[in-house]
Amino acid sequence: MTQTTIKKLGFWSIVLFAINSIIGSGIFLTPGSVVSMVGAKAPLAYLGAAVIAIVLAISFASAAKYVSKSGGAYAYAKASFGDRFGFYMGVVRYFSASVAWGVMAVSVIKSTLSIFGGNPNDFRSVSIGFVILMIIITIVNFLGEEFFTWVNNLSTIGKLTSLVILIIAGVSILLVTGQNNFSQINRLTGNGGLIPSVTTSSFVMAMVAAFYAFTGFESVSSGSEDMIKPEKNLPRAIPLAIIIISIIYIGTISVAMMINPVAIVKTNQVVALAAVFSNRILQTIILLGALVSMFGINVAASFNSPRILEAMANEGQMPHWIAKRNRKGIPIVAYIITVALAILIPMSFLYETTLVILMSAMVRFFEFIVIPIGVVGYYYDKHQQPILNAPKNWWTDVLIPLLGVLLTAFLLFEYDWVGEFSIHGHLNWYAISGMIGGFVVLPIIFALFARWERK
């Protein structure tokens, strides 16, 4: 079978893929953290986070119309700032994405064990479930692009359906009973309550927390060469996906707070949204939606992560044999390396997720500054390598990317760095050494390996 016969993702499959890459466990498991920060202003926090996500998504979409190669941020950074900077971006992005995939898979197993009464802290049980899940995802990938697209679309529709049912059921309950319990959250707010009085600082922190439920759009273009006309479809698909997700997120949190806002904050259930409803059927639908959502985002990660490494090999910045594909068009060598990293790194750290979350946040901030600046360079023809002759737009290629840089700087300033790099007032050397390893040592090792291969 030749490469030209491989089925690629069309526009609507890209939209569903983008949604699948973004909606994970956050909206199902952790809305209580946002509500506990700002109480009744939680929907506004999600709205603010949605605005930031849309601005940054437009920046990445603009980059996609100028650079259609796979690799996502790696390809954009390489075109903007040259081989060395692109190589560094590729290494840190690839390692972060690979290990983050493993951590997300572990989260699926731990959540599943918790939901069904198992012990999520039992290393043996988690490890067995973890390996089985990765085998299933590997089978999904190795059956080819057509089967992968089917699974991706099905999981995306499944998670969207559960959230839409939640919204419709909630609105129906409100209309039938005529009761709106939104104001009940005020009983927990203020002095002596579970929710402190809302300040500008606490609202900003809630918005930052809500923003992470929107991340993932930056990885959608990693496999752009497996998409139909990525330079045309990605700039339309990514913003559309963010808009759809924004509507669903805000609708979900608003309806949940109208039905039973106190339960969101006080519940001990793994899936916080399920605690909002007393109906067992609705609870089951939400639980299944959460599991499908977590599985789906792992499927998306299994597509994105290997293609970063493959893109670097295709560009001659990693050994060429890493870019080898099988007859179904799967980057088999890059996938095997990636799945090995995704399993071994989390397992070797006994599934400790703090470092991975921190590194993932750092890489995203790095991307959210570099790529918008690169887009401005594309507009003014200030770039290191050839780009596509795409139609230019000052609003989407200059103004919005610069706004994205300012918003990212704002997020960087508000991020709780002290809390991430310290434990009970002492430096967290585990996190510090991990960051040095990921951002300094690993790129050096990869660079030496690539140089040795070239020689």
Query: Fraction of residues in helices?
Result: over 70%
| Cα shape | globular
Largest sheet geometry: 2 strands, antiparallel
CATH fold naming: Amino acid/polyamine transporter I
Mean pLDDT: 85
Protein name: Amino acid transport protein
Membrane topology: Multi-pass membrane protein
Keywords: Cell membrane, Membrane, Transmembrane, Transmembrane helix
InterPro entries: AA/rel_permease1, APC_superfamily
Explain what this protein looks like in three dimensions.
This protein has 455 residues and is mainly alpha-helical. The chain has one domain: Up-down Bundle (Amino acid/polyamine transporter I), CATH 1.20.1740.10. Helix content is 71%, strand content 1%. The protein is built from 17 helices and two strands. The longest helix is centred in the middle third of the chain and has 35 residues. The radius of gyration is 22 Å and the shape is globular. The chain starts with 10 loop residues before the first helix and ends with a helix. The relative contact order is 0.19.
What is this structure, in a nutshell?
This is Amino acid transport protein. By secondary structure, this protein is mainly α.
Task: Supply database-style keywords.
455 residues; globular; 17 helices; Amino acid/polyamine transporter I; mainly alpha
